[in-house]
Write a structure and sequence with these properties.
mainly alpha, 3 domains, 50% helix
Length: 210
């Protein structure tokens, strides 16, 4: 396909295609089908950054013949998949009104992945700057995931932090009573006994309990 795939990496791919489709040359039906699939994917999945954003962040990437727009899009997809893995337990995805800091992190992490592959791995060298940028992105995502850093959308409204989907129990802090051994060997956590006794003593007198 002769089309530059970078034109499809937009926050509004359907609108962009409407504007640019006249300049796209389709070699065959498979190319058109690929375009349709890509548009559907971009329209239903959270997409934080674009090929153009990555090129703006580090223009040198665009000067390499081995790094095409489709290659950059591939690494963006990988980076965003990892970012979603960090966010999914504590945030509802996709963000309906965007999230600028996630766009920044996705752009940075996509670039890191490209530099790791084409500037570090293939050359067989270590790059402290690349490693440092990756560590910075991971550290920031960890703080977002823990709730230490919040996220705002494009209108500066705070995006709700869900604190995970963990199931909580009012006895989860106690040692379990159950044992696979003889039932006479079961032991009840002393803290649980103290707490239950305190609860009874604080209750009003109820003859039905005695």
């Amino acid at each position: 396909m002769d089309a530059d795939m970078s034109v499809l990496n937009s926050q509004n791919p359907l609108l962009l295609l409407e504007k640019r489709v006249g300049g796209i040359i389709f070699d065959n039906g498979e190319s058109l089908l690929f375009i349709i699939i890509l548009l559907i994917y971009n329209n239903i999945m959270p997409t934080y950054t674009t090929v153009d954003n990555v090129l703006d962040l580090y223009p040198r990437v665009g000067s390499l013949s081995t790094v095409s727009s489709s290659s950059i899009a591939f690494f963006i997809t990988q980076a965003e998949a990892e970012i979603n893995g960090h966010l999914i337990n504590n945030y509802t995805l996709p963000f309906p009104n965007g999230a600028p800091i996630i766009e920044t992190l996705a752009t940075e992490y996509s670039l890191v992945k490209i530099l790791e592959r084409f500037f570090t791995q293939e050359v067989g060298s270590q790059n402290a700057w690349v490693s440092g940028r990756k560590e910075a992105v991971m550290d920031y995502l960890t703080k977002i995931n823990s709730g230490d850093i919040g996220i705002v959308d494009n209108s500066l409204a705070i995006i709700t932090y869900n604190a995970g989907d963990t199931i909580h129990s009012n006895t989860m802090e106690y040692n379990p009573t159950f044992t696979m051994l003889n039932s006479t060997l079961q032991q009840i956590d002393s803290d649980r006994l103290d707490d239950e006794l305190d609860a009874v003593e604080l209750e009003e007198y109820n003859p039905a309990l005695y």
